[in-house]
Automatic annotation (TrEMBL):
Any one GO molecular-function label of the UniProt entry: DNA-directed DNA polymerase activity
GO annotation terms (biological process): DNA-templated DNA replication; double-strand break repair
Keyword DNA damage belongs to the record: yes
Pfam families documented for this protein: 5_3_exonuc (PF01367), 5_3_exonuc_N (PF02739), DNA_pol_A (PF00476)
Lineage of the species this protein comes from: Bacteria, Bacillati, Actinomycetota, Actinomycetes, Micrococcales
UniProt keyword annotations, A-Z: DNA damage, DNA repair, DNA replication, DNA-binding, DNA-directed DNA polymerase, Exonuclease, Hydrolase, Nuclease, Nucleotidyltransferase, Transferase
Reaction(s) this enzyme catalyzes, per UniProt: DNA(n) + a 2'-deoxyribonucleoside 5'-triphosphate = DNA(n+1) + diphosphate
Biological source species: Microbacterium stercoris
Name of the protein described by the UniProt record: DNA polymerase I
Gene designation: polA
Length: 880
DNA sequence: ATGCCCACGTA
DNA sequence: CGTACGTGGGCATT
C-alpha cells in the first residue's frame, strides 16, 4: 500500500489546543452577550477546520482530559502540582466545545484516570497496526515520542495555534538531535517545569543530547553516571532517581482501553441543525460556513438516511379541490404561496393511516377562492406552517380561516424559545433528518425544483408528529389555548393597521430638524469645531481628549457617551457642550422616530406593523417594520407623536385599555405574600401602601422620595435587582440601598422566599413555567461561569412573571377579538400591557364593557386585575 | 452590501 | 452588577 493510498487517522488533543487558544485570543472579542467566554472554543475550532481542510483525514477523533487527576498524580503527587488552577472561564468552555464537536459528527474521547495524550498514544499505535497514516495534533511536547514513519505530530508554534509545525522523524532529529523515541529521555534529564518534574540541575537540552549520543541510551547513561566528571556529573548521580521517575511519568500509555477502534472513527456527516443551534448560542457566524465547507466532502460521501419521497401533488380544478378538502376529517396540511400580498397558489396534503400521503394543489383564482371558502372557514382541522402571513393573504382575498389545529413554527418556538427554528426547513431537518427541497434562487433556471405548496403541506404535517411527541402537556395547551387563537387575532390587527397623520408628523419633524440644526451650531461654537454629534467615536475625542473631561464607564470600544453618563459629567465638570449634546440627542432621536414612522404610512393613511409571535423568549410579542411597541410616551413633547395616531375615517374614537401594575399583581399572586395581596385588595395606591409598610409611617405620610424608592425597589424585584443596581438607579449609597432592601423584605418576606424558591426550582427542573404552563429552559443556571449563571438567575426570576403577564394579555386579546366579531370596532395595537381599539360610532359602551370584562377576567388571581380605560380622538388623548 | 457597536425608545 | 424587545447611525469590513 502506498502512503497516499492509506487512510488517514487524525487524533487531536482537545484540551491542550483549546487551552492554548484560550490564552492566544483576547477574551473581549470572544464573549457572548450573555457573558459566555468562547475564545478557547473559537480558537480551537478555527484551527480544527483548517486542519480538516488541509489534511483531509478519513478518520477522526478528539481526546480530552477528564480532570487534573490521573494515574500520574497518584504515582507522584507533585505531578503538575505547580500549575495554576485551571481558570473557570476556560473549564466552562470544554463541555461546549465537546458539544460543538459532537454536532460536527466528531468522536470525542475521554478516559477517566488517563490524559488525552495517552489516548493519542493508544490510537496512534493501533492506527499504525491497522494500516493508517496517523496525524497527531497536540500542544504537549511529550507526544514527540510517538512520531515515527507512519505517525506525524502537528505541534502549535509559539506564534499561535493557527501555525502548526510538522514533526516527522527527520524534523525531530533536526530539532532535537535524536530520534523521536528518545525525546522522553531528553525530557527526563532536562525536566519539565510545566509538569513540575524537576530535572538534573545545570543540564539542558544540549548536554542531555550529548550524553545520550555518547552512551546510546538513558539506561546506559544512568549506569555510567559516576564516570561523568564535574559538577554536572555529580548532579546527575544525585538525581538519578528523579530522572527515572520523570521517565516513568512522561512515557505515554499505548494500551489504554478505549470504546472504539481506529476503523470506527471514520468521519461522520455533521448534524447541520445541531451545529447551527450551538453556533447560534456561541454567537459564531463566520465559523459556520467554514465548518460546513470542511465537512462538505464527508457529507457528500455519506449516504443520507433514505428520505421518504414527497408525493407528487395532483393539479386539481376548483371543484376537485373543494371536494378533496371536504372529504375527510383527517388533519389537512395547507400551504398558501403568496405573491404581492395575495394568494398565488394553494396546496393541500393529507396523510391517511395505512394509505400513505396525498397532495393536491391549484393556482389561485376566484373559482378556487369560492370553492374553498366554506371549508377554510370551517372547524375542519388544518396545519399551517408560519400561518400568519398566509392568513393575511387569504384575508386580503376576502377569506376567513378557522380550525387552525397546529402551526409547527409556533410549536417549535414554545419548545425552544431561545433558539426557535425559523423555517419549515429547519424543522424538517430537526425532526425528519431530511432536507426540504429548495430551488436555488441564484439560478435563472434552477437545477433543483423547490417543494410545491402541496409538498410543503405534506412536510408540515410530518413534522407535527415529532413536535407533538416533544411538547409537554402544559405547553401543548399554551399552543392550543393561547397561541393559536392569538395568531388569527394578530393577522386581523396587522391587516387593519392604525391611522397615522402625516401632517402632524411632518410638521413636528420640521420643527425638530430646525431645532437640531440650531443646537448643533451652538454645540460646535462651544468647542470651536464641527463634529458629527451622532458619532460616539468622534464625541469621545472631543470629551475625553480635547476637553479632558473625566472618563466615564468603559464600553467595548472606549468610554460611554450615553445620556446618564453625560448627565453625570455635567454635574462633575460643567461644560456648555454637554448640555447642547444632550438636547441635540433628544431632538434628533425624536425626529428619527418620526421620520421612520412617516415613511411607513401606506397610501391609505395607515401604518401596519408585523407582530412577531415568536419574537421573545418569555411569551411576549415583538413588533417590527415599524416597531409600534416603543413609540415614545415619557415626555410631554414626545407625546405629540402619539397624538399623530388617530382614529380612522368612519370610526368614532380610540379606546386604550391597560393593566395597571400587572407584573406586581402576578408577583403578589405567585408569592402569596399577605402584605402585597392586601395592598392590591385595599385599592390603596400600591407604592404608597408599600412605602407606608417599609418606612413605618401612615400611608398619607409617605413622601414622594419614599414612594420613588419603594417603587424602584418593587419594579427592580421583578428583574432580579441587586443592591448595587438599586443604588445606581436611585443615586443613593449602596448601604442605603441595602437597608432599603432589608426593610422591604422584612415586610414582604414571602416575595423573597418566592423569588429564591422559583430559581431553585428552575435549577432542578431546567426550566421556568408561567401560570399557564409556558416553559422557558435555562441551561445556564448550573454553569460554572458566574456571570453566565447570575444572568440566567435574573432571567429565570423574571420569566414566569413577564411570561404570565404576556399569557394573560394574549388571552384577553383574542377573547376581545372574538367578542368584536359582529361589531365594526376592532383591536389595532398591543403594547404588552395595553390595547388600542378603534371604536365604531355607536359601539362605545358595548366595546368598553367587553374590554373591561375580558381583561379583568383573563386570569383568576388572588388579587384583582385592574384595567384603566381611556377614550379620545387620538392615542395621546385616549391615554388620559 | 453586511455586520457590529452604541445609544435609546417602549413595557 | 435589572428583564424583554427593535431601530438607526456610524464605522469597519467584505
Amino acid at each position: 500500500m502506498t502512503d497516499s493510498a492509506k487512510p488517514t487517522l487524525l487524533v487531536v488533543d482537545g484540551h491542550s489546543l483549546a487551552y492554548r487558544a484560550f490564552y492566544a485570543l483576547p477574551v473581549d472579542n470572544f464573549t457572548t452577550k450573555d457573558g459566555q467566554h468562547t475564545n478557547g472554543i473559537y480558537g480551537f475550532l478555527s484551527m480544527f477546520v483548517n486542519l480538516l481542510k488541509a489534511e483531509k483525514p478519513t478518520h477522526l477523533a478528539v481526546a480530552f482530559d477528564t480532570s487534573r487527576e490521573s494515574f500520574r498524580t497518584r504515582e507522584y503527587t507533585e505531578y503538575k502540582a505547580n500549575r495554576a488552577e485551571t481558570p473557570s472561564e476556560f473549564r466552562g468552555q470544554i463541555p461546549l466545545l465537546q458539544e460543538c464537536l459532537e454536532a460536527m459528527g466528531v468522536t470525542v474521547l475521554t478516559k477517566p484516570d488517563f490524559e488525552a495524550d495517552d489516548i493519542l498514544a493508544t490510537l496512534a499505535t493501533q492506527g499504525v497496526e491497522a494500516g493508517f497514516r496517523v496525524l497527531l495534533c497536540s500542544g504537549d511536547r511529550d507526544t514527540i515520542q510517538l512520531v515515527n514513519d507512519d505517525v506525524t505530530l502537528l505541534y502549535p508554534s509559539v506564534q499561535g495555534v493557527s501555525q502548526l509545525k510538522r514533526y516527522d522523524p527527520p524534523a525531530v532529529v533536526e530539532k532535537y538531535g535524536l530520534a523521536p523515541e528518545m525525546y522522553p529521555d531528553i525530557a527526563a534529564l532536562v525536566g519539565e517545569t510545566s509538569d513540575n518534574l524537576p530535572g538534573v540541575p545545570k543540564v539542558g537540552e544540549k548536554t542531555a543530547v550529548k550524553w545520550l549520543t555518547q552512551f546510546g541510551s538513558l539506561d546506559a547513561l544512568l549506569e555510567g553516571a559516576h564516570t561523568i566528571k564535574g559538577v554536572v556529573g555529580g548532579n546527575l548521580v544525585a538525581h538519578v532517581e528523579d530522572v527515572r521517575r520523570n521517565r516513568r511519568l512522561n512515557r505515554l500509555l499505548r494500551d489504554v482501553e478505549l470504546p472504539v477502534r481506529p476503523e470506527e472513527l471514520i468521519r461522520q456527516p455533521l448534524d447541520a441543525q445541531a451545529v447551527r443551534d450551538i453556533f447560534a448560542r456561541l454567537e459564531f457566524r463566520t465559523l459556520l460556513p467554514r465548518v460546513f465547507e470542511a465537512a462538505g466532502e464527508v457529507a457528500q460521501d455519506e449516504p443520507q438516511a433514505a428520505a421518504e419521497p414527497a408525493p407528487q401533488a395532483r393539479q386539481a380544478s376548483a371543484t376537485e379541490l373543494a371536494a378533496w378538502a371536504g372529504g375527510s376529517q383527517v388533519e389537512t396540511g395547507v400551504t398558501v404561496t403568496i405573491l404581492g400580498g395575495l394568494p398565488e397558489r394553494i396546496g393541500l396534503a393529507r396523510i391517511v393511516e395505512g394509505q400513505g400521503a396525498e397532495a393536491v394543489e391549484a393556482t389561485w383564482s376566484d373559482e378556487v377562492a369560492e370553492a374553498l371558502a366554506a371549508w377554510l372557514a370551517s372547524d375542519a382541522p388544518k396545519v399551517l406552517s408560519d400561518a400568519k402571513p398566509q392568513l393575511k393573504a387569504l384575508g386580503r382575498a376576502g377569506l376567513r380561516v378557522s380550525g387552525i389545529a397546529y402551526d409547527p413554527i409556533l410549536a417549535g418556538w414554545l419548545l425552544r424559545p431561545s433558539f426557535p427554528d425559523k423555517t419549515l426547513g429547519d424543522l424538517v431537518e430537526r425532526y425528519l433528518g431530511e432536507k426540504l427541497p429548495e430551488a436555488d434562487p441564484s439560478q435563472l433556471v434552477p437545477e433543483t425544483e423547490g417543494a410545491t405548496p402541496g409538498q410543503l403541506s405534506w412536510y408540515a404535517l410530518r413534522v407535527v408528529t415529532g413536535l407533538r411527541d416533544e411538547l409537554a402537556e402544559s405547553v401543548a395547551s399554551v399552543l392550543v389555548d393561547i397561541e393559536l387563537p392569538t395568531l388569527s387575532t394578530l393577522a386581523d390587527m396587522e391587516l387593519a393597521g392604525v391611522a397615522v397623520s402625516h401632517e402632524k408628523l411632518s410638521r413636528f419633524s420640521g420643527e425638530l430638524g430646525t431645532r437640531a440644526d440650531a443646537i448643533a451650531q451652538e454645540a460646535y461654537a462651544a468647542i470651536g469645531r464641527e463634529v458629527n454629534l451622532g458619532s460616539p467615536k468622534q464625541l469621545q475625542e472631543v470629551l475625553f481628549e480635547e476637553l479632558q473631561l473625566p472618563k466615564t464607564r468603559k464600553t467595548k470600544t472606549g468610554y460611554t457617551t450615553d445620556a446618564a453618563a453625560l448627565a453625570d459629567l455635567q454635574e462633575k465638570a460643567h461644560h456648555p457642550f454637554l448640555d447642547m449634546l444632550l438636547q441635540h440627542r433628544e431632538a434628533t432621536k425624536l425626529k428619527q422616530i418620526i421620520d421612520g414612522l412617516d415613511a411607513a404610512i401606506a397610501p391609505d393613511g395607515r401604518v401596519r406593523t408585523t407582530y412577531v409571535q415568536t419574537g421573545s423568549q418569555t411569551g411576549r410579542l415583538s413588533s417590527t417594520d415599524p416597531n409600534l411597541q416603543n413609540i415614545p410616551v415619557r415626555t410631554e413633547e414626545s407625546r405629540r407623536i402619539r397624538a399623530a395616531f388617530e382614529v380612522g375615517d368612519g370610526y368614532d374614537s380610540l379606546l386604550t385599555a391597560d393593566y395597571s401594575q400587572i407584573e406586581m399583581r402576578i408577583m403578589a399572586h405567585l408569592s402569596g405574600d399577605p402584605g402585597l395581596i392586601e395592598a392590591f385588595n385595599t385599592g390603596e395606591d400600591l407604592h404608597r401602601f408599600v412605602g407606608a409598610r417599609v418606612f413605618g409611617v401612615e400611608p398619607e405620610d409617605v413622601s414622594p422620595a419614599m414612594r420613588t424608592k419603594v417603587k424602584a425597589m418593587s419594579y427592580g424585584l421583578v428583574y432580579g435587582l441587586s443592591a448595587f443596581g438599586l443604588a445606581k438607579q436611585l443615586r443613593i449609597d449602596q448601604s442605603e440601598a441595602k437597608s432599603l432592601m432589608i426593610e422591604y423584605f422584612a415586610r414582604f418576606g414571602a416575595v423573597r422566599d418566592y423569588l429564591r424558591s422559583s430559581v431553585e426550582q428552575a435549577r432542578v427542573d431546567g426550566y421556568t413555567e408561567t401560570i399557564f404552563g409556558r416553559r422557558r429552559p435555562f441551561p445556564d443556571l448550573t454553569s460554572p461561569n458566574r456571570q453566565l449563571r447570575e444572568n440566567a438567575e435574573r432571567a429565570a426570576l423574571n420569566a414566569p412573571i413577564q411570561g404570565s403577564a404576556a399569557d394573560i394579555m394574549k388571552i384577553a386579546l383574542f377573547r376581545i377579538h372574538n367578542d368584536l366579531r359582529d361589531l365594526r370596532s376592532r383591536v389595532l395595537l398591543q403594547i404588552h400591557d395595553e390595547l388600542v381599539v378603534e371604536v365604531a360610532p355607536g359601539e362605545w359602551d358595548e366595546v368598553e364593557r367587553i374590554v373591561r370584562e375580558r381583561m379583568g377576567t383573563a386570569a383568576q388571581l388572588t388579587v384583582p386585575l385592574d384595567v384603566q380605560v381611556g377614550r379620545g380622538a387620538d392615542w395621546n388623548e385616549a391615554a388620559h
